[in-house]
């Protein structure tokens, strides 16, 4: 993925006419690795503690199929990227 390639926003509807537009004033992290690689996650509503915990995100292409979760954790020393640490069943 090049720096100029727009990144899909995690959670955008499959029929959203523009799933790549970020909202001004919102904070996003890039998901790195795993089934959601390259997508942006809006973390605006998360507290500092919640951001430190990372997130289990629904991932249709997880190792557990539709409904499985991908575990993403903040990259140490980098507030803008979360790394995939594996898939978990739901």
Write structural notes for this entry:
By secondary structure, the protein is mainly β. 7% of the residues lie in helices and 33% in strands. It has 1 helix and 5 strands; from the N terminus they run ββαβββ. The chain has a 5-stranded mixed sheet with strand order 2-1-5-4-3. A hairpin with a 7-residue loop joins strand 1 and strand 2. The mean pLDDT is 91.
Topology record:
Layout: E1 28-32, E2 40-42, H1 48-53, E3 55-58, E4 69-75, E5 78-88
Parallel strand pairs: 1-5
Antiparallel strand pairs: 1-2, 3-4, 4-5
Q: Can you count the helices?
A: 1
Annotation, overall tally of beta strands: 5
Mean pLDDT across all residues, rounded?
A: 91
Percentage of β-strand residues = 25-35%
Explain briefly what this protein structure is:
This protein is mainly β and 90 residues long. It has one helix at residues 48-53, and strands at 28-32, 40-42, 55-58, 69-75, 78-88.
Keywords:
mainly beta, 90 residues, 33% strand
